[in-house]
Amino acid sequence: METQIDRFWVLALVSKCKAFSSRDPIFLLLSLFFAWLAIALCCWVYPGGPAWGKYWLRRGICSKAKMIPGPKGFPVIGSMNLMVNLAHHKLSAAAKTFKAKRLMAFSMGETRVIITCNPDVAKDILNSSVFADRPVKESAYQLMFNRAIGFAPYGVYWRTLRRIAATHLFCPKQISSTESQRFDIASQMVSVIACQGGDSFRVRDILKKASLNNMMCSVFGRKYDIGTSNNEIEELRGLVDEGYDLLGKLNWSDHLPWLANLDLQKIRFRCSNLVPKVNRFVNRIIREHREDQSGQRRNDFVDVLLSLLGPDKLSDHDMVAVLWAAYIPSLSFLGN
Asked: Strand, coil or helix: what is 286?
């Protein structure tokens, strides 16, 4: 909305000029460009950069509200450079530079951002429903994460997901039921490492396989040995790696809406290719659980979600999103 108002203001300004009726397209374009540039520079001079400049201009220059310190960054794009490569180090250094002891403001294109290194302030933010919603990245929305607890908007649906997670998925009973599974995977890890002998190996690769197998069992009820290869687990590994890469990539379109239709980073294209594969994979497992006539429950997340009744019952589309979102973090802490 802010961007549209700015554009209308520029058009209104140019329409007052005689050049508008002179049918000189070059002069008109130059007028539009310089008017836009003047607005961008006016917004950029405020602490926090261009996005915060728009906010303060809209509230009025005479506003008595105290401005939050922070870097201006660059005109238009703000401080998007802070979010590339070890962002937490750069943000910490910027907070020290600007003496932002409680809060620091900066701009990522047209997105206003606030960070804090103060534990008391962080506690207040995390416990406040005002901050419950988070901006949904394009990749998160395309990958169905807007229907999972991490990105779903605060409201009845989000509270339902939270109740399901607390009561069924991550309750003490569910965690204790997978204790033997974790012991078994830990034993497999020891055996795999012992078999390496004096050969060099990467511990991260073994941890990654163990994490993948643990989540495969907890979420989908599938059990595999760490030392063996399987087409299904390799397929899922590829889906998870691609999904995690898309979620972690800094998407310019999220913060510069006028670039969205160009899809310069091919994120929308990659998401559109990944989602059908995820749907096929997860829906196949859900269908297998429904068709299982053995009468034995595996106590995995799929069985738990299928057993829900009444207001807690989820549609297949929502189940795919919840299961997919439950699986992605399994490898996130290990990276690639």
From this structure: helix
Radius of gyration of the chain (CA): 25
What is the per-residue DSSP string for 104-158? EEEEETTEEEEE---HHHHHHHHT-GGG------HHHHHTTGGGSTTTSPTTHHH
pLDDT tens, residue by residue, 132-147 = 777 788 888 888 888 8
pTM comes to 0.79
Three state DSSP letters for 229-256? CCHHHHHHHHHHHHHHHHHHCCCHHHHC
CA 309 to chain centre: 30
Q: How far apart are CA 323 and CA 326, in angstroms?
A: 5
Question: Residues 56, 58, 64, 69: what is their CA dihedral angle, to the nearest 10 degrees?
Answer: -10
Q: Is 307 helix (H, G, I), strand (E, B) or coil?
A: coil
Q: Could you tell me if 321 and 144 are in contact, meaning their C-beta atoms sit under 8 angstroms apart?
A: yes
Contact status, residue 246 vs residue 274, Cβ threshold 8 Å: yes
| Residue indicated by tokens 């297949």 | 316
Q: What pLDDT is recorded for position 198?
A: 67
Task: Report the C-alpha gap between 216 and 171 in whole angstroms.
Answer: 18
> Does residue 72 contact residue 46 with C-beta atoms inside 8 Å?
yes
- The H or E element containing residue 121 is helix 119-126
Task: Give the number of other Cβ atoms within 10 Å of residue 214's Cβ.
Answer: 18
DSSP state letter for 221 = -
What gap in Å lies between CA 325 and CA 144, rounded to an integer?
8
Angstrom distance (rounded) from CA 157 to CA 321 = 13
